[in-house]
Amino acid sequence: MFNFVKMHGLGNDFVIIDLRINTLDLSDDFVRAICNRKTGIGCDQLILLNSPFSSEATVFMGIRNADGSESGACGNATRCVAFMLMEELGQQIVTVETKAGLLKCERRGKSDVRVKLNPPVFEWEAIPLSKDCDSMCLPFELSEYNHLKTPVALSVGNPHVVFFLDDLDRAKVHEIGPFFECHHLFPERVNVNFASIACRDKIKLKVWERGAGATLACGTGACATAVAGMKRGFVNAKVEVVQEGGSLLIEWAGGTEPIYMTGGVARVYTGMYNA
Q: Is 74 a catalytic residue?
């Protein structure tokens, strides 16, 4: 039996467990059972809080996808955890430690949180890709998906591939997402982003998340897509990314500058689970 908190960021939902007060068997089967929406609690990712390794951090946040696999970063979960800590500690600024590094978080308004993410990575080995190629223009030429060409690959703490389309309705996320998630070019699998440019200040986005499938919103997906759009000259350095669950504001000054993500969160309920 353990306590948990259910939260979401734009509909991307999480079960948050504090391992500082709960001792659990974290096998892949256990994670899948918790995330199962019919027989468990149900969520896109299971978020595990623990004591930080860094003296600069408030907490360490581990991330497990619905299929049991581990992820190094989750933007929406970072905002949720930061908000929960701010409420508990009465602070406006906290630092969340993840496998992707230290993420400084600042409260903005009633339920918005701004996260400072590390700079994006474009080197093929670091994303990672399975071979040396131009990450700004991947060599995809697939007859069955001939409207999906030359996407951008990058890492924002986890790997992403971004396709820009004129018509987002052609994305067919549930069909195409799994195909590219497990493509041989991505040895650790990949988050698959389908984007269309509404104007220089707005991007529309759908995401197939690695290990979780289609979600209402993906924070790192919004960051990766905005950065890819900025690198290609499609959008400005501050852009709204609109997903089914809502909008995120993404800012990036280019080069080795950090990415800033701002958006809302919601605490849904707390509960006790009899494992």
A: yes
